[in-house]
């Protein structure tokens, strides 16, 4: 993929494997690109899931990017979210919850204003 596609990305989820030993730690960060596709960037310590064994006593850390489908992303999100003792944050769900709360608050405010207007009007002022 071209680098330009990655210039505009929105953080949607993040997972960190927080081992006590730094050599085993890794992180995965999911982004939604402006074209709607989803990528996951990973970074792993030498002995982590993403580390690479070169020889008996030589391991290296790696980082990279892979593209996933929506179904694969949903599976990744549900799988990583169930692992206890690690850090998983679903920013997309948090953002949706915040939007829903703001929407509910707005509708309550509009409803209250509408009720106040109706209460202030007398029956004689109504046109019907």
Shape: elongated
Structural class: alpha+beta
List the total number of helices.
Answer: 2
Oligomer: single chain
Largest sheet: 5 strands, antiparallel
Termini separation (Å)?
Answer: 65 Å
Residues in helices, as a percent range: 25-40%
Strand-residue fraction?
25-35%
Number of strands: 7
Task: Output the radius of gyration.
Answer: 24 Å
- Taken in chain order, the helices and strands follow as EEEEEEHEH
Structural features, described:
- The protein has a domain at 3-91.
- By secondary structure, it is an alpha+beta fold.
- The N and C termini lie far apart (65 Å).
- The protein has helices at 70-82, 91-120; strands spanning 9-17, 26-33, 38-44, 52-55, 58-60, 62-68, 87-90.
- The mean pLDDT is 83.
- The strands form two sheets. It has a five-stranded antiparallel beta sheet with strand order 6-3-2-1-7. A two-stranded antiparallel ribbon has the order 4-5.
- It is elongated and about 90 Å long.
- The protein is built from two helices and seven strands, in the order ββββββαβα.
- The longest helix is centred in the C-terminal third of the chain and has 30 residues, at 91-120.
- A hairpin with an 8-residue loop joins strand 1 and strand 2 (26-33).
